[in-house]
Structure formats: structure tokens, C-alpha cells
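Box S1 | Example of a co-folding query
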Amino acid sequence: MSAARGEAKVIDGKAVSKRLLEKLPARVAALTEERGEAPLLAILAIGADSPSEAYLKMKLQACRSIGLETSVHSLPLATTEAEAFQVLDDLGGDLHVDAILLEMPVPEPLDARRLIDRIPPEKDAEGVTERNFGRLFAAKSMADIDAAGVFLPCTALSIITLIQEAGIEPRGKQAVVIGRSNIVGKPAAHLLSCLDATVTLCHTKTPDLVFYLKRADIVVSAVGKPGLVTGAMLKRGTVLIDAGVCYEDGVMKGDADFESIRKVAGAVTPVPGGVGPVTTACLLLNTVLAAERRTRARLAA
Ligand code: NAP
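Box S1 (continued) | Returned holo structure for NAP
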């Protein structure tokens, strides 16, 4: 983290990501030695989408850097649901595949939710299948989550990792999460609750966002609207984790009005360079965890 006098600390997502990734090669090497093959992440990409392709390249490079194997299964734009199901079923049943990732977005008229739920929960690298959500939301504490063998949704895991890496203890704090999607806002709010914060989940029907923000010690913004959160809306010293991603004239922006927030907040994540890099590291972390759990289950059988 870095801070000038009187300004918020900037939580460096790239540095946090590097620290997370540094711990993984030893775990991957141990698995590779034990099983005679490296853990394998299979990626299904349907149709061509430029931003998604750029993210895909980044993920493949990150996997290589820690010794993970990858296989990419590319299907054309006109793929039917039955064809996509077949590939997912094959990957689900393949003993060599430890984790499966479905690249987003999927082209219309495919239903992303139905495709995601075809992934077996034990290979759910992104923690986004309904069965994983069920286990996650049935848990009340981080200990329950561990015991249930949940894979945490990567962006929500990135958010709480950044909060903890910044040295902020959520217990007893007031937290506000803006955005209630299944993959980001809701799980981030739930994880903060599991870490004993008192959480308010805001959305488009929240009548007075500022009322809640002014009381919050921790704010997570997961919307995708640049400038939605400004310094004037926040309590002095608050911690702002900005998960929003939006492109304006080709420039990546978060939800936060960074300059005004720096003068008020105690700590803030930048966009780019905050939640994004840590989310990629969390995907790799989940893949290694999936391989470890599958290897343990195989040895126990
Ligand atoms: P989403 O499904 O579109 O959800 C957006 C949420 O924001 C909704 O719950 C919506 O409320 C709420 N919202 C919209 N305008 C609002 C406003 N003016 N005030 C309060 N709430 C408002 O998006 P998502 O998939 O959760 O993604 C959220 C953001 O995170 C996007 O920018 C996405 O690109 C980014 N993202 C980043 C990463 C990363 O790794 N950095 C990963 C995934 C997503 P309603 O429910 O009432 O409609």
C-alpha cells in the first residue's frame, strides 16, 4: 500500500496478487509429483469476443507461470446448448481435468446460468455454480465455508482478500456493498457477514445510498458505473474496494471517483490494478484447491 500525507492508502492489487501467486508453485509441484501430472484447468470459450479473449490470454499466462496445465475448448458462435452441454459433460467426466471455467459472455441465445450449472461443483473453478452458491449461503462463518468444501466466487474472494491484506479487520465494522449480483455483490456481502461485519446490501431501489455510505467503515462497490461513489458520500477513513469495471473511450474505469475519494478514505483500491489482478490469482487458487481436493478424494477412495 502507498499513501501521501493526508491521502488514502492505495491498496496495490498487483502486489497482493503477486503475494498470493508466490505461494502456489510449491503446491502445484507437490500435486504434480504425487499424481504424475500437473493440475489441469479446462476452459470453454464459445464465440469470439475481444475483451474476453484478452482476459483469456492473461489467465493462460498466469496458469503457465505457476506450472498449471490448461486446455482451451473453442466452440463457434452458432453452438447449440446441446453441443455446449456435451463438451461440459465430457470435461466434467474427464479424470485429468481438475477445474472447468466457462468464458463470459456466452453468445445469445445460450443461457449462461444453465451452462454454468452443468459444471460439477467439485470442478467449479470460479465458484459460480448454484450448488456452490447453496453451500456458500448455507454457511454462517468462514469455518463453516471451509468445512463445506465451498469454492468462493473469485471476485468476492478477491474483495475480502484485499480488505484483509490491507490490514482491516471486518469484525464489528459497518460494511456497505453496492450491487447484488450473484457473482459479486451478494457473495461479497455474505463473506463480510461471515467475517462478522454488519452488512447492508444496496442496489438500484435503495432510496438514499448516501445515508448508508456515510455510516460505513468498509464500502464495496460492484456496479460498473464510473463516478457512482465520490468522496463527499463517504465517512472519513472508510475503506473502499472498487470492483466496478467499465470502459469509457477505451479507458478502464471503476465506480469510484478516485481523486475525491483519496482525500477522504483511509484506503482505496485503484482501477485498473485493484480487484482485477487479485481475481485472476483467486481463480488459480481455486484451481489448485480443486486439484488438491480431488487428489485427496481419490486417495481416500
Ligand atoms: P450486474 O450483474 O450488472 O450488477 C450490478 C448491480 O449494481 C445490480 O445489483 C444493480 O442493482 C446495481 N446498481 C446499478 N446501478 C446502481 C446505482 N445507481 N446505485 C446502486 N446500485 C446500482 O454486475 P456484476 O456482474 O455484479 O458486476 C459488477 C461490476 O463488477 C461490473 O462493473 C463488472 O464489470 C465488475 N466485475 C469486475 C470483476 C473483476 O475481477 N474486477 C469481476 C466481475 C465483475 P439492481 O440489482 O437493483 O439492478
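The chain has a mean pLDDT of 95. The domain at 37-137+278-290 is CATH 3.40.50.10860 (Rossmann fold).
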